[in-house]
Amino acid sequence: MSTPHNSGEKGEIAKKVLMPGDPLRAKFIAETYLEDVREFNTVRNMLGYTGTYKGREVSVMGSGMGIPSIGIYSYELFHFYDVEEIIRVGSAGGLAMDLNLKDVVIGMGACTDSSYQRQFNLPGTFAPIADYDLLERAVKKAKDMKVSVKVGNLVSSDVFYNADETVNKRWQKMGVLAVEMEAAALYMNAAWAKKKALCIASISDHLFKEDALTSQERETGFTQMMEIALDI
């Protein structure tokens, strides 16, 4: 069955999905790494592809920017397409001072300033965390590839241009590694659906340094992150 946001039919999407925010990064991953690729979605230009990687079926699909967008796409994949695991492969802004451009971070947890969790009507504050099995395998794969990887807390923010210029410093003080905009909703949706989720991110800029990658470098330059996600 298709949805208002996804023209794929049931069976056209693999049990494992990689989700970059940028649909053009999804296209790059499909064209660079997958064999026997077939396109299953172009609705709203949120490109989706299914193919094989080392003989295993895998799909890749953009999530768009922000919690509302990945909230929709990951919900549909988990509930309507029988997807079992989603690995976000995205960009993040560095907060920890020992992070540099293109370093890989893995979100063990995802703080957030979003109100997304209110829909679950919980009697407290939910702590969105990654699936441990995916996390453990990702760390092992990174070590096998001799990739320097940091594991810890991310913060998924609803705000890119924040009027409060002190927020990033306060997250940094709490040991948060990097800021991005999607992981918390993905982790919440996975918990609700009893599925698996993980966020692997590459540092595209640093909030306390003047380093930043171009849009083209962000689209095609995060190959280590992509290969870790594909191999687990």
TrEMBL record:
<dbReference type="InterPro" id="IPR000845">
    <property type="entry name" value="Nucleoside_phosphorylase_d"/>
</dbReference>
<feature type="active site" description="Proton donor">
    <location>
        <position position="205"/>
    </location>
</feature>
<feature type="site" description="Important for catalytic activity">
    <location>
        <position position="218"/>
    </location>
</feature>
<feature type="binding site" description="in other chain">
    <location>
        <position position="21"/>
    </location>
    <ligand>
        <name>phosphate</name>
    </ligand>
</feature>
<comment type="similarity">
    <text>Belongs to the PNP/UDP phosphorylase family.</text>
</comment>
<feature type="binding site" description="in other chain">
    <location>
        <begin position="88"/>
        <end position="91"/>
    </location>
    <ligand>
        <name>phosphate</name>
    </ligand>
</feature>
<keyword id="KW-0808">Transferase</keyword>
<feature type="binding site" description="in other chain">
    <location>
        <begin position="204"/>
        <end position="205"/>
    </location>
    <ligand>
        <name>a purine D-ribonucleoside</name>
    </ligand>
</feature>
<dbReference type="InterPro" id="IPR004402">
    <property type="entry name" value="DeoD-type"/>
</dbReference>
<dbReference type="InterPro" id="IPR018016">
    <property type="entry name" value="Nucleoside_phosphorylase_CS"/>
</dbReference>
<feature type="binding site">
    <location>
        <position position="5"/>
    </location>
    <ligand>
        <name>a purine D-ribonucleoside</name>
    </ligand>
</feature>
<dbReference type="InterPro" id="IPR035994">
    <property type="entry name" value="Nucleoside_phosphorylase_sf"/>
</dbReference>
<comment type="subunit">
    <text>Homohexamer; trimer of homodimers.</text>
</comment>
<keyword id="KW-0328">Glycosyltransferase</keyword>
<dbReference type="GO" id="GO:0004731">
    <property type="term" value="F:purine-nucleoside phosphorylase activity"/>
</dbReference>
<comment type="function">
    <text>Catalyzes the reversible phosphorolytic breakdown of the N-glycosidic bond in the beta-(deoxy)ribonucleoside molecules, with the formation of the corresponding free purine bases and pentose-1-phosphate.</text>
</comment>
<feature type="domain" description="Nucleoside phosphorylase">
    <location>
        <begin position="17"/>
        <end position="214"/>
    </location>
</feature>
<feature type="binding site" description="in other chain">
    <location>
        <begin position="180"/>
        <end position="182"/>
    </location>
    <ligand>
        <name>a purine D-ribonucleoside</name>
    </ligand>
</feature>
<protein>
    <recommendedName>
        <fullName>Purine nucleoside phosphorylase DeoD-type</fullName>
        <ecNumber>2.4.2.1</ecNumber>
    </recommendedName>
</protein>
<dbReference type="Pfam" id="PF01048">
    <property type="entry name" value="PNP_UDP_1"/>
</dbReference>
<feature type="binding site" description="in other chain">
    <location>
        <position position="25"/>
    </location>
    <ligand>
        <name>phosphate</name>
    </ligand>
</feature>
<feature type="binding site">
    <location>
        <position position="44"/>
    </location>
    <ligand>
        <name>phosphate</name>
    </ligand>
</feature>
